[in-house]
């Protein structure tokens, strides 16, 4: 977003009426659209899995990088507080006292870590253990070459995503 602001300030200094300026403006708008689409998807995932995301944030080790930006973390906390308040005001206060507690962590669906994801390898990785789809197949080990792209189950490469060795596409 900072880069977009910088690009726009550069365009303001350029000559008006130049064909390059209008092409650059179209490119900036395209980038802005892709960025806002990405951010909408990210917020939708936070809304869908908020208890699990906040639980993961609580349990992360000291010094371990967060998977959320500070703004996303604040959004997730506020979304959880608003959800709990809404449930209490609309339904739970009308229930018997023994049913007035709700465990959102248990009720909200968990992210599917068995889903397959596309990835691009940033750093060469050796001896990655790939689990089979069925019990009949045996496990096998693969090497990931830098720059290669793969379709692999997320839970297999989750630590590599966290370390930055692979990047989701």
From TrEMBL:
Q: Which keywords annotate this record? A: Chromosome, DNA replication, Nucleus
GO CC terms: CMG complex; cytoplasm; GINS complex
GINS subunit domain mapped to chain residues: 19-90
CDD domains membership: GINS_A_Sld5, GINS_B_Sld5
| GO aspect biological process, one term | DNA-templated DNA replication
**Gene3D superfamilies (alphabetical):** 1.20.58.1030, 3.40.5.60
DNA replication complex GINS protein SLD5 C-terminal domain residues are: 111-169
Q: Does the keyword Nucleus apply?
A: yes
User: Localized where?
Assistant: Chromosome; Nucleus
UniProt similarity note: Belongs to the GINS4/SLD5 family.
The record's function comment reads:
Required for initiation of chromosomal DNA replication. Core component of CDC45-MCM-GINS (CMG) helicase, the molecular machine that unwinds template DNA during replication, and around which the replisome is built.
PANTHER family of this UniProt entry? DNA REPLICATION COMPLEX GINS PROTEIN SLD5, SLD5 PROTEIN
Stated name of the protein: DNA replication complex GINS protein SLD5
């Amino acid at each position: 977003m900072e880069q977009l602001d910088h690009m726009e300030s550069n365009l303001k200094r350029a000559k008006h009426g130049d064909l390059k300026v209008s092409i650059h403006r179209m490119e900036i708008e395209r980038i802005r659209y892709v960025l806002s689409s990405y951010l909408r998807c990210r917020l939708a995932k936070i809304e869908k899995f908020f208890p699990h995301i906040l639980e993961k944030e609580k349990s992360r080790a000291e010094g371990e990088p967060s998977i959320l930006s500070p703004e996303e973390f604040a959004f997730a906390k506020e979304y959880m507080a608003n959800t709990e308040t809404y449930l209490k005001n609309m339904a739970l206060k009308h229930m018997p006292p023994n049913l007035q507690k709700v465990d959102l962590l248990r009720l909200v669906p968990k992210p599917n870590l068995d889903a397959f994801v596309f990835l691009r390898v940033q750093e060469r990785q050796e001896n990655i253990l790939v689990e089979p789809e069925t019990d009949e197949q045996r496990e096998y080990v693969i090497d990931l070459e830098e720059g290669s792209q793969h379709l692999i189950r997320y839970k297999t490469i989750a630590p590599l995503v966290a370390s930055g060795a692979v990047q989701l596409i």
